[in-house]
Design brief:
Elements lengths: L19 E3 L19 E3 L19 E3 L7 E2 L10 E3 L7 E2 L2
Parallel strand pairs: 1-2, 2-3, 3-5, 4-6
């Protein structure tokens, strides 16, 4: 679903067994609609228009998160992601890091 000009994430919440989703290079502004994807291990949202890291608390099996090339200014909202091993935040506007 990369390069699809999506502006929001919807319709994937019914895919409860989904392990990898690639939503790079769209026009997504907020991380929503992923609450039921508890088996998700890799989430790629690079190259969108996301300004805030949020909506990830239930993704407890996430090991890779790519948010590079967005408009994020603050690193926060990652506390619950205890299995996270790879975090990509290049090409953002980060000015602050919080837990």
């Amino acid at each position: 679903m990369s390069h699809s000009k999506l502006s929001e994430i919807k319709g994937v919440d019914i895919l409860a067994k989904l392990e990898v989703i690639n939503l790079t290079c769209n026009q997504i502004i907020a991380i929503t609609g992923l609450d039921n994807l508890r088996n998700l291990e890799e989430l790629s949202l690079a190259g969108n228009k996301i300004i805030e890291i949020s909506g990830l608390n239930t993704l407890i099996n996430l090991t890779l998160l790519d948010l590079g090339g967005n408009q994020i200014t603050e690193i926060k909202g990652l506390k619950e992601l205890r299995n996270l091993r790879f975090l990509y935040l290049t090409n953002n506007q980060i000015t602050e890091i919080r837990g």
